[in-house]
Write a structure and sequence with these properties.
4 helices; 0% strand; elongated; de novo design (two linked rop proteins); single chain; 73% helix
């Protein structure tokens, strides 16, 4: 997938690099879980999909909130889901559902999402403080 491109101005949550990378992660998770054993359909596969879905949906919901603080709270929930997904990836590796290479690729992508979320949280806090002045 092509590198996320930063727009001149953010008009929608889909313009956010954080959401774009999260979307890529979500797509990858959906793709790999299709190949999981049938007995994992309602277990690990479902949990991984829910966590990946939560990453992007919380970014989108926070973007639509009125206050900076509400946005920050949703971004923190998104970050927690990214960490949850990293744990599920470890479980999938240990269960033999993921190769070491695919685990490393997805784990690094999830870490990138966390770094981007941390930056987004930081910049939102700075905007909140500037608005209060």
């Amino acid at each position: 997938m092509a590198e996320a491109k930063r727009p001149e101005r953010v008009n929608d949550f889909t313009d956010l690099e954080t959401w774009q990378v999260g979307r890529r992660l979500r797509k990858e998770v959906y793709d790999i879980t299709r190949g999981f054993p049938a007995e994992e359909k309602y277990g690990l596969s479902s949990q991984m999909r829910r966590a990946a879905f939560s990453v992007t949906s919380n970014i989108a919901e926070g973007f639509g909130r009125f206050s900076y603080q509400e946005n920050i709270q949703y971004l923190r929930q998104s970050r927690a889901s990214a960490y949850e997904l990293r744990d599920h990836l470890t479980t999938a590796l240990d269960a033999g559902c993921l190769s070491k290479e695919k685990f490393e690729e997805l784990n690094e992508l999830a870490k990138s999402v966390v770094r981007l979320l941390n930056g987004y949280i930081r910049s939102t806090k700075e905007r909140r403080e500037a608005a209060a002045r």
